[in-house]
Design a protein that fits this description.
The structure is a homodimer. Chain A is an alpha/beta fold. Chain A has 11 helices and 11 strands. In chain A, helix 1 (about 15-25) links the parallel strand 1 and strand 2. In chain A, helix 1 packs parallel to helix 2 and helix 4 (about 80-90) packs parallel to helix 5.
Chain lengths: ~325, ~325
């Protein structure tokens, strides 16, 4: 049975929320879990559930700490204890704590699959059709075209195995549609992707992220983060303007009453909370990052997505790929 | 009197639109103009206006041509004839034609101000407060931190002289607020900006482009283009969803009637047509890029903005700065 390690610490909403999420996630799916956090707060909650163990700790790594330093020094931090247990006996770890700590832990504790130069944080961009996977989302920068090609392989395999996309369509985030467009890195990456065995469908301009017919979008973490946060900021700004308009006067308030349920439904698929989190790819075990501001509902979703990741066998598949390419080399 | 060279060719809407725009622009402001385009189509239009000359040509450079090659070869192209005339006797040139051709013409015909390594295309991001200038917008990539510092000087001077901003606040587009965030280029650029005499206020995260209290935002052209096009695409997507909601049923159509004028007013400042175009900075003359899909109203606005650019003396100011830094070196 799949065994998930759940980091109970580091979420904005605290340990209770994570405990609620685990309880909720257990209701509709069968799996084993080890929750890493304060025995005090968690003990009573899971006494009745034989498939949930508690790994006691009260320390954690915050967003303000230098991640690599903290991972090396804070042996009692929940993420460190969780990742060590993952190496020994777990299938996947999920955390809503510091992204930097998960990344550093991925390099230093979980370790990379042989041949993988960098780890890759994917983000699920919410859109009407269920979303597009974009990576790197801001964890890994200063990448070479060769690294971006590896990201293409990571994402394509993840989309196929964990998200059940058939022959995933891979796009490259770029400033124009033509192959010669972009900076030096983008031009070279386009060439490598075109020559690869991936289902590369070409460049994706940033204005088409929400509509382009692709399953995954490859990018360096700098531009990826800029795109994701511009999306988030623009969406937030638009929502605030519409909200303001709808409360301007008695007349617009009446108008609001007439459209609000349709508007809410139409905007729902664009909410990033439609997905619980995002995989960190390239490590020897499945690592899953839930939103820092998760609530019990979205964290429960993240637990299920993390289980999908583990059960898809994508880590084994990527390790086998890496073995093959070593033999060929 | 300020003399503007107006490229009549290359706009999506054609020569007639540009002629209409020039007529409109002349109504509320006094200036001399040379319009470069087919005498046939333009002659009758400006026979009565002693301050408008026509420079006849029927050739132009399209978006599909390799710009540097076309600039060198097509001596009769409107942008080539316009830029040559600008060198001889003009103050500023405005075009709605190929951005690549304007950029190549800037390097090859107008030439750079001594010491300016690259040219910099600024974009005015529309927002409630009148807009923020972001550059480079996608023309200049693979920039070094030193080039980005020069962009900071170009933009800051332009914002002060042409846009009348007092002590313009300069931000750096980055993936986090802290000085150590970003890729290698961003970290080094942050350091150079902090040590410079510019009014550098720190990093601007992409989610805050529409709200950050800055006058200009510095970025490499790759990330700048990604940010601008993500903004554009997200705004377009949101508009389409709201429009769809408002026409779903008889009830939402009634709701639409009640809110439509307020909604239109609220969204107006976010329309990129609130500005006519964007300066290309770093050349020995003022160069101004109008939107390719300009209509007569926005192109007339672009003509006035281009005149502001020329009359602000920013080119002379940047040339003097460059002389000073040469003497100091």
């Amino acid at each position: 049975m799949t065994k998930i390690i759940v980091d109970a610490m580091g979420a904005d909403a605290g340990v209770e929320m994570v405990a609620d999420a685990l309880t909720k996630a257990r209701r509709t799916r069968d799996f084993e879990a080890v929750i890493v956090g304060p025995e005090d707060a968690l003990g009573a909650r899971f006494r009745e559930d034989p498939k949930v163990e508690i790994l006691n700790t009260t320390e954690y790594i915050s967003n303000d700490e230098a991640p690599a330093f903290a991972i090396r020094r804070k042996k009692e931090a929940s993420i460190v204890k969780g990742l060590r247990l993952l190496n020994e006996s777990g299938d996947v770890l999920v955390t809503a704590g510091s992204t930097g700590a998960l990344l550093a832990g991925g390099y230093l504790i979980t370790k990379r699959i042989a041949g993988m130069e960098r780890l890759c944080l994917a983000a699920m961009v919410p859109r009407g059709d269920g979303g597009v996977l974009m990576a790197d989302a801001g964890a890994t920068m200063d990448t070479s075209p060769e690294v971006l090609l590896q990201f293409g392989e990571l994402l394509s395999n993840y989309a196929e195995a964990a998200l059940k996309k058939v022959n995933p369509r891979v796009g490259l985030l770029n400033i124009g549609a033509e192959s010669e467009k972009g900076d030096k890195r983008a031009v070279k990456t386009h060439e490598l992707l075109r020559e690869s065995s991936l289902n590369f469908v070409g460049n994706v301009e940033a204005r088409d992220i929400l509509t382009a017919p692709v399953d995954v979008i490859i990018t360096d973490g700098f531009a990826g983060n800029i795109a994701l946060k511009t999306l988030e900021g623009t969406a937030r700004y638009f929502r605030s303007i519409v909200k303001q308009v709808l409360t301007t006067s008695a007349r617009t308030k009446l108008g609001a009453l007439l459209i609000q349920s349709e508007l809410k439904n139409a905007l729902q698929p664009l909410d990033y909370r439609a997905h619980g989190g995002a995989p960190l790819l390239g490590a020897r075990k499945a690592l899953y990052k839930a939103h820092g501001n998760s609530n019990a509902e979205t964290f429960a979703l993240a637990i299920h997505e993390a289980l999908d990741f583990a059960e898809s066998g994508v880590v084994e598949r990527l390790s086998a790929l890496s073995e093959t390419s070593k033999e060929q080399a």
